[in-house]
Structures are given as C-alpha cells and as structure tokens.
Amino acid sequence: MTTGVRRRMGVEERRQQLIAVALELFSHRSPDDVSIDEIAAAAGISRPLVYHYFPGKLSLYEAALRKAAEDLAGRFVEPHEGPLGARLLRVMGRFFDFVDEHGPGFSALMRGGPAVGSSATNALIDSVRQAAYEQILAHLGITEPPARLELVVRSWVSLAESTALIWLDGRRIPRTELELQLVHDFAALTAVSAAYDTEMAAILRSVLAAEPADGPFGDLMERLIALAPQAD
Amino acid sequence: MTTGVRRRMGVEERRQQLIAVALELFSHRSPDDVSIDEIAAAAGISRPLVYHYFPGKLSLYEAALRKAAEDLAGRFVEPHEGPLGARLLRVMGRFFDFVDEHGPGFSALMRGGPAVGSSATNALIDSVRQAAYEQILAHLGITEPPARLELVVRSWVSLAESTALIWLDGRRIPRTELELQLVHDFAALTAVSAAYDTEMAAILRSVLAAEPADGPFGDLMERLIALAPQAD
C-alpha cells in the first residue's frame, strides 16, 4: 500500500514538473515553436518518457494552460475591503504581472492559431473570462445582474485583454498607466450605460458614493470635468 | 481562344456560386456542423464536383470567409462629410446589419474552434480589424497616430466585436441601443485617455469642436453632466 501511494505521488510529481517546464517554455515562445524534444531536455528526461505522461504536445500544452488559467483566476481574488476603484487597480496590477510573465505565450494564445485553437483551450480562456466577470459582480454586490450590466462587465473584460495584447506589442505605453486607464475605462463604460438607463444609473451612483475623492474614480471625474469646459 | 475564355469564366462562376452557397450555410450554423454534402446539395451539384473546385471544407470555408471579410470591410467605408459621431453611428448600423445577417457563423468564428482556428482565418479577422482601424484614423484625419490613440482605436474595435457577440447571445438589448452605445463608448474611451495626456486631449477637443449639440457626442455629454451632480 505504502509503495503504491509513493509510486502514484512520483507520477504526479513528474507530471507537475513537466507541466511547469512546459509552461515556462510556452510562456516565452509561441507554442508552435516549442518542441517535445526541448521540453524533454529542459526537464532532464527522455522524449519517450514525456510521451509516457502526455500523449502529445497538445495535451501537455493544455495542461500547462490549465495551470496558467488557475494562476490568473487566482490573481483576480481581492479582499472585499475599501473602495472599489482601488481594489480593481490592485487586480489590474496582478493581471499585468501575469501578462508580463507569460507575454509571448499569452499573445500566441489570445491571437489564436493552429496549436492553440482547440475546444479545450477555448473553454479554458472562457473559464478565466467567467472568473473575472463573477469576481466583479461579487465586488459590486450584485447577484442578478441586469443585461446592461452584464454587457458592460463582459465587454470591459475583453477590453482588458485587448489592451494587454496591444501593450505586449511593443510596450510603448508604461504598464502602470494602462492599469489605471483600465480602471477608468470601467467607470467610463459604466457611466455611458448609466447615462441612458436608470437601473445602471443607480448602480453607478452606489459605486461612486463609496469612492474617495483621491481614488482612481474621483481623480478621473475631476480631470474629465477640467477637460469638458475647454472642449466647448 | 474564345472557348478557352468561356471555360475559365465558367470555372470562376461556379466557384463564386459555391462560395455564396457556403457562406449562406456557414453564416447560419457553426462551420463544424456544415458538411460538404449539404453544400453540394444546396448548390445542386455532386460532392466530387465540389472537391474539384475546393480541396476540402477548410479551403471553401476560408473562401467564404474572405468574401464575408471584404463585405464587412466595405461597410466601414463612409463619406468624409458631416459630424464624426453621426458617421460612426451609420457605420455601427451597417456593422450590426452584418452581424445580424451572419449571426451563428460570426459567433463561431470569433469564439474560435477546430474548424475556424487556422492561420488563414486569423489573418482574415486581423485584416478586417486593420480596415476598421484605418478607416477611423482616416476620418480623424490622423496619419501618424500616437501610441495612445492607436490603443484607444484598436481596443475600441475589440470592444465593438465583443459587444456584438454578447448581443448575439440572447439579443436581450435592442441593437439600435448598442449601436449608439458603441459610439458613446468611443468618445468615453478617448476622453479617459485625454484626461491624462495632452496630445490625446488635443485630439478629443478637435473632434468635439465639430460635433453638434444634438449629435450622439453632444447628447452623451449632456446626460453625463446631468448624472454627475447626483452621484456626488
């Protein structure tokens, strides 16, 4: 019995080592450019032994991606304390940490392609989007979101993805600026929806009521108001 | 010579007929669910004859997608006349017409999957995004966009995509409301960027200066200002 348990542990440890090594390689280059031979060499084992644990590169890629997805979803978790704008800004910092650590792999995944377009990888991407969506609703304290709020939150999640992808392509804007901008974008998209819908207006008011004047939302409002008269 | 020319015309006509039939089928169901047999039946020809023109379903799918991509990019073209907000609103109307006409196929394509994740399909999607980006810059009259403007325009294009996808999933919000909302979102994202960058502020001011008070931008500003004091 003891030996059996130890053997199963060994298998799982080896699998985890291979997943970690593969994730490291897949993070820094497009998955199409990473070979099983390289993964075997980096793990210090033979190519046939890799195939003993994973039937092919796609299954190893999917396992590495699952690990990365769990990691990213974990970074969305934030204590329900203090102003919402500051909470979202901390999450954005951890999101950009993740994007920074996995840059080329993140780009390859989100831009699609032969090695990354499987149903399993798409389901993993969607699970991370769903985790982000649910975290935001939980922080807003809303369990049954109206259709317009769902639209704002889900479309903002996609805006965060595309902003990160554009940042990775040349890094021409400092990431801290983009982290703050995405917090502002969330407020702006909510405000646009609130301008035409009373239910959204009530949600916006309850969010802004708890924001300090020197938080990201308060600062944006002040700057927008300063911008408006000159625009007239 | 004449016979030769006529034969080539016949081949091209047949190809175009097959592409049109395939696009109709691929628009209304996920490409994974459409068979070559169905395409052959809809075109009134035999299955082997379809393979004579296209080596497989993927090549026919890519040809249909190319036709759809050209169609969509064509709908972005708008005369350089009148206020920018009204121009963008007309383009959004034609964009949602396209999304409406090709709903299930558009969703399947943009959500990815085995039949749609080829390099060629990704390149086509990117070409449409690039066409949208270039049209907007042309309407803004800007040939060398600063990095922050490029970010706003490209990330707004992705916001338009995700808004259309969310709309298709249940159609719970009237599309005319979303067409207007996307025009407002463009103004809002530009304003957020302008609040922290003098170059973007100058671009925003030149856009707003030409907008009438009763256009989509003017109307939004009025409503946001009405919303702001209550939020305090």
TrEMBL record, chains A, B:
SUPFAM superfamilies attached here?
Answer: Homeodomain-like
| PROSITE patterns the UniProt entry points to | HTH_TETR_1, HTH_TETR_2
Coiled-coil stretches are: none
- Ranges annotated as DNA-binding: 35-54
Signal peptide start and end residues: none
Keyword list, A-Z: DNA-binding, Transcription, Transcription regulation
Q: Which one Pfam family would you cite for this protein?
A: TetR_N
In Swiss-Prot or TrEMBL terms, this protein is called: TetR/AcrR family transcriptional regulator
Source organism per entry reads Streptomyces monticola
